Fold:
Amino acid sequence: MYAVSRSNKEDLEAASADRSENDTTNTPVDRRKFLSATATLGVAGLAGCASSSDDGTEQTDEASTDAEETTTSSGTAESTSEPATGEVTLVHDTHVHGSYGDLEEAANIATYFDLMNQIADNNDHSIKVGSGDDLATSILSAQFDGKHIVDAFNEGGLEFDTFGNHDFDRGPDVLRDRISDSEFQWVSANARNAQTGDVFGAEQGASQYELVSAGDVTVGLTGIINVEAPTITTMGETTEVPGLEAPVEAVVTEMRDDGADLVVVLSHVASPAAVELAESVDGIDAIVGDHAATFSEEPQVVNDTVLSFVDDEYDYLGELTLTVEDGERTDHSLTVYDTAAAVDEGRVEPHPGVLEVAESYESKLSDELDVVVGETTVPLDAREDTVRSEESNFGNYIADALRSHGNADVAIQNGGGIRTDELYPEGDITRRMVYSVLPFGNNQVTIEVTGETLVEALELSSTGGGGFLQVSGMRYTYDPDKSKGDRVTEVTVGGEPLDTEATYTVATNGFTATGGDSYTMFQDAPRIIDANEGELLSVIVEDAIEEDGTISPSVEGRIKTE
Structure:
């Protein structure tokens, strides 16, 4: 397959030998129909994948056993007498949000890796890469801190990944542990240790870039994280994202100086930002992956950079082949594979090793979480469109539990921290459901703020999105048509008009309290209970449901629009 340099991960060679200009429109309704019907971008391409036997069993990647270390990310590739010529195939990408998918359905982590390995085995020089947001935000992530994903990726033979914002959700120390556990290589140009200037997790084996010898072609691989990551996840005080263009340009230059014939960026930024990066930084041959789950039937080409976006999780895999002649990229082609369609056609079966890992973790999870903790007499609304834009009955219950546990005047819970995008029917409530809705490792924090600061926070909330606040102990009215700063027209706390000069106690989660979703007005607020003392939010809600036994939360007019 290829030889890889690993300045911080010497074990990849052995691990891999053991395993085998212009449309970014999202088309969630029609794209699977398009791919399945035409078969030109998907399943038909599998007819030539020789890694599965006639009975469908997976064959290991024999070619990867020939991998040899040839360069290092701090060294220079061996010079060749002739400019490089050849083809390199990128099999991309991951972005699985800590989930295995439904192991009973066609598209899941086990079938995905079988398909990934078939595509890789069908190309002489292929590299299997991810795009970040892999370790969280699932219920499995809440229980196992992302190790369940690393173990599955190790077994499936992923070779390179980059950081996404959700990979930091369990905190930087947990992510460092996962880097140490990884048999694949983590790369990033712009997730940095603010104290050393090196890549985050360097001591555990991450690197700013790696050079891979794929036949005669030397490939430089790096990655990028979205620049807003420090405000939407828990990166820690010593981790920073110093922009996008400048750090990428510096790393691209270094890779070229070290002998890279091709430069590939594993991307966890939204497609518009990736396009801007391609326009601004010369020398990038390909950008693969997307923070916002964009899907494009064809790659874009911007400033001689090929950009490929194939959604997220387990629906699709991209096979992007780059052709090099005399040291220059001269052509490219993209095939997109529909995982479920490939399974339905009988060409893909679950990867045995990955399936074993997934079933093991699912079994452990079931033992812990498939327990009824209460019941609801009304549907519980955790739909994204609701919790990020208006009052939700389940949002009210969560905020009430938080306020009661924190013994506070008011409570606020960011809608982006309420996951699953589900409307749960009346009936039993399980611990699994609670942890799925609240998967982040956020502890309760109680702070003191002035009424003026509360109004400032509500002004920010009124802009919607993941920072939209579900509230308890207060009511407010806002006019979305007014300019920022004038939207909030009325606020009451405990039934009384808010006093901008008064001090109020506010129960929230550690993410919001430390400035997440741009709530920087809370960062320096005095702590009554800090994150190290507070209880896990999901545990608080679970305990409240168990104590109540039966719940019937309602929408009460806590949040009104004019």
The two ends are 62 Å apart (CA to CA). Residues 352-369 form the longest helix (18 residues). The mean pLDDT is 87. The domain at 86-365 is CATH 3.60.21.10 (Purple Acid Phosphatase; chain A, domain 2).
